[in-house]
Amino acid sequence: MKYDFDKLIDRQNTFNKKWLKYEDPEVIPMWIADMDFSCPEEILEPIKERIDQGIFGYADAPEELNEILKDRIQIKSNWNIESDWITWLPGAVVALNVACRTALRPGEMVMTPSPIYAPFTEASENMERGHVKTFLSDVNGRMELDFDAISNLVNEEIKMFFFCNPQNPGGTVFSQSEIEQLVGVCLENDILICSDEIHSDLILDEDKQHIHLASLSKEIEQNSITLLGPCKTFNLAGFPMAAAIIPNKQLREDFRRYMNGIVAHLDSVALVATKAAYTKADDWHQELISYLRKNREILQNGINSIEGLSLKGPEASYLSWIDCRESNLVSPRDFILENAKVGVYDSDWFGSKDYLRLNFACPQSRLVEAIERIQKAFSQRN
């Protein structure tokens, strides 16, 4: 391999949230969606050149970046978009909040399938709007949309649906038939879909393909907001960057208007990093996918050897959704933290229970150590 994903990098003194969470230095943090891999030199060198220039003023995304993203989407997924559909923001979470502010009037609601990344449900609350939860079904370890529940919950107050594909935390890559069924329900009931597709460049199952929801028809294209960005794929979370792709002209203008006063300027270095990621880092990206596939295999084998735990996915991304329902533990997260010194996310934060989210985007030696610690802790349970 050209790139060294096995390298252990000390992140203790980098003000990194992932590594600052635990006072005990023995804890291996595997909770937040932040990879323990260095960005490739193809991204680092342009960043260094920009820093050496020495001035960091207010920045706007250049038209060139819109064209780069437009071409990338067309080549990778055959969805033809226009460059002026793109609005850049400092992160997808910001976009979720702006979408609520744009699409919902007071008293109106967004429907959100749960378990899901908590900022989805927080966005409507932040904007003083309502939300309705529908719950995903665990079908043999795959988190799937419950269309009966969605149809039963639909009412005239629901004006938007938050879709996450690939799904976070479940890792599901939704099929075309699943997406078409969701689109049918939403179009029939005049419901806008905001589709977070931030993890779409991290497909691990070789028989799966990401499908942009908005690419299925002109009708849904005009009733959608699609969120994309480089942060998860290229480990650029420290440089929040996301693109909201909004084909509907009136919706796009409203979205941009509602950004006023609540959305910060883009970071000039983040723009450089994004351009480099999308134009120079394809080789690194391909090696990353291969490495993550091997890590997933190691993790699945390790977790499934532990009585009371089960792991079937994820189909995409580096976030595993571990089923702990047979463990008979009140708090699997606390048990693992206290007895294995491995820090994972509790499913309560995602609106569920009896699951854990574990980030396996780390050197394999660290992953193996974490698995061995968890195995030992469970083997010594009273």
SSE map:
Blueprint lengths: L16 H4 L7 E2 L11 H13 L9 H15 L8 E4 L2 H12 L5 E6 L4 H8 L3 E6 L1 E3 L2 E3 L2 H7 L4 E7 L11 H13 L3 E5 L21 H4 L2 E5 L13 E4 L3 H11 L8 H13 L1 H23 L14 E5 L8 H9 L1 E2 L1 E2 L8 E5 L4 H16 L3
Parallel strand pairs: 1-12, 3-4, 3-7, 7-8, 8-9
Antiparallel strand pairs: 2-10, 5-6, 9-10, 11-14, 13-14
Helix pairs in contact: 2-10, 3-10, 4-5, 4-9, 11-13, 12-13
Would you mind describing this structure in some detail?
The protein has 382 residues and is α/β, with parallel strands linked by helices. It has two domains: 17-41 and 282-379, Aspartate Aminotransferase, domain 1, CATH 3.90.1150.10; 55-280, 3-Layer(aba) Sandwich (Aspartate Aminotransferase, domain 2). It is 39% helix and 15% strand. The protein has 13 helices and 14 strands. The strands form four sheets. The chain has a seven-stranded mixed β-sheet with strand order 2-10-9-8-7-3-4, with helices on both faces. Strands 11-14-13 form a three-stranded antiparallel β-sheet, with no helix packed on it. Strands 1-12 form a two-stranded parallel sheet. Helix 7 (176-188) links the parallel strand 7 and strand 8. The longest helix has 23 residues, at 282-304.
Q: Alpha-carbon distance between the termini?
A: 44 Å
Poorly predicted parts? none
Query: From N to C, what is the helix and strand string?
Result: HEHHEHEHEEEHEHEHEEHHHEHEEEH
Mean pLDDT: 96
User: What strand line-up does the widest sheet have?
Assistant: 2-10-9-8-7-3-4
Proportion in β-strands: 15-25%
* Count of DSSP strands: 14
How many strands, which pairing sense, and closed or not: the largest β-sheet? 7 strands, mixed
Spatial shape: globular
Helix tally equals: 13
- The CATH first-level class of the largest domain comes to Alpha Beta
CATH superfamily of the largest domain: Type I PLP-dependent aspartate aminotransferase-like (Major domain)
Q: Name the helicity range.
A: 25-40%
Q: What is the oligomer described by this structure?
A: single chain
* Content-based structural category: alpha/beta
Count of folded domains: 2
- Indicate the CATH architecture of the largest domain: 3-Layer(aba) Sandwich
What's the Cα radius of gyration?
Answer: 21 Å
CATH fold type of the largest domain: Aspartate Aminotransferase, domain 2
